[in-house]
Amino acid sequence: MKLRVGSYVGDGTDNRQITGIGFQPDLVWVKRGGSGTGYPAWRSSNLAGDLSVFFANEAAAADCIQSLDADGFTLGTSTSVNASGATYYYAAFCDNGADFAVGGYTGNGTDNRDITGLGFEPDYVVVRCRSQARYSYARTDQFVGDLSANHFGGEYANLIQSFGADGFQVGNQADINYSGWEYTWFAFLAVAGWSASGLYAGNGVDGRQIAGLGFAPDVVVVIGEVTSSVFRTSSMPGDATYGFGLGSGQTNRIQALLSDGFEVGTDTTVNQVGKNYRWFAFRQGDTQGPALKTSSDSGVATETVVGREMAAAETATGQDAVASRAIQGAEAAAGTDSGAIARYDSDSASATETEIAIVPNVISRVEVQATVVPGLTDRLELMADVFHDRITDAVELLATISPLVVDRVMLEAAVLNQAQEAAGQAQVIAPAAQVEFL
Fold first, then answer.
1. How far apart are CA 309 and CA 330, in angstroms?
2. pTM surpassing 0.85?
3. Residuewise pLDDT in 10s, the chain (438 residues)
4. Minimal CA–CA distance to 376: which of 343, 406, 342?
């Protein structure tokens, strides 16, 4: 997932382009600031024409977010997104890995219906009917039973009922699955260091800090048990927080975004005594698929990274000396397999770096495998750069850690952002893939 947040001042002109995001988004939502009217609008890449939908029970509308473009998005003249002189706040998301997806489905009225094809088990899903004026609903992994929340207050059963390995399940309520109606949705996976979900019980204390996210968030959504949902982005000034309806920015809600969490006030939308609040938070930047998780008992970790090109690195700390990494590519353009192996053997305490290049035009899976053997007493670092013109499928990173390695092992993966075909060079961006010991 890629995320950018920002703001702009409306000018009332049609076909207004908001640029400089750095990618073509798959989802944009926009909220008007100040005290002016305007429901928060959202557009995803699966919506046809220039339609946008709203979180509120308003009919889908044209002339709002008209298109999602190579470097941003285009606005119409709707006051929800482009009234002259009004300030607007936006969040733009791009699907560049196995942690974010958008889609749609046609209702069939069947209970316990599975919506699949996401490629991951989500931690946050929002669904909204696009063919009728209905409310939007949200569920995070912190909900119990088959409950989900109306963005305008209350938890209800038989809507977004559960999450599964490849999607989510809906009930047969009209707001979520009426036969013949069209629905649109977006879904996120919590990725360590980039996005997170959580739950807290309200205590009514002002300045309360919700910490432990592992990053400084740029978007926070709080979903109350009985109250309307609210959100805040890092582009919003002061301690203003907005709901998903017409209301203006309010204080005493999400008061601040912190280095490791966020702060809430005493407003009932975020901190009513004894009421539960679910939240989901995002960090601005570029993730590259789900975070790596390692079991200290089994010593096995896996990560899937999706991208055109890829660089991988491993650092291991332990006791004295041998490690190897194999990179194997399948289905090159000529139809034959290709690969390379990097090996590090050392009797000394110093680290060595080996770079590997794989032939161009790998069009299927690339598997990176690392094994750290027993007896390492010093620091070891292996780096493998894989760059080529095209990898169009997934990249899988598999690490096996020996039980005798008792210190932290960290794997990092960077996806090459742009291949310069003529020179055979690439520009690297390097978001970390973190290891969690379970």
1. 14
2. no
3. 999 999 999 999 999 999 999 999 999 999 999 876 678 999 999 999 999 999 999 999 999 999 999 999 999 999 999 999 999 999 999 998 789 999 999 999 999 999 999 999 999 999 999 999 999 999 999 999 999 999 999 999 999 999 999 999 999 999 999 999 999 999 999 999 999 999 999 999 999 999 999 999 999 999 999 999 999 999 999 888 999 887 788 899 999 999 999 999 999 999 999 999 999 999 998 876 544 333 333 333 333 333 322 333 333 333 222 333 322 232 222 233 333 323 323 333 333 333 333 333 332 333 333 343 443 333 333 233 332 333 333 333 343 433 333 343 333 333 223 333 322 333 333 333 333 333
4. 406
Candidates 119, 185, 179; CA nearest to 148 is 185
- DSSP per-residue letters across 58-102: ---BSSSEEEEETTEEEE-S-HHHH-TT-EEEEEEEE--STTEEE
Contact assessment for residue 223 and residue 277, using Cβ atoms and an 8 Å cutoff: yes
Please return the burial class of 347, using the count of CB atoms within 10 Å of its CB with bins 0-12, 13-18 and 19+: exposed
Going by their DSSP bridges, the two strands 195-201 and 276-282 should be labelled as antiparallel
Dihedral Cα 128, 24, 95, 358, nearest 10 deg: 160
3-state class (DSSP) for residue 174: helix
By residue count, the chain amounts to 438
Structure tokens at 49: 């024409």
3-state secondary structure of 184: strand
Beta strand 100-106 pairing with 182-188? antiparallel
Which helix (H) or strand (E) element contains residue 38?
none
Per DSSP, 269 falls in state H
Query: Which burial class, exposed, middle or buried, applies to 427 when counting CB atoms under 10 A from its CB (0-12, 13-18, 19+)?
Result: exposed
Domain ranges of the chain: 100-188, 292-437
Q: CB of 20 within 8 A of CB of 5? A: no
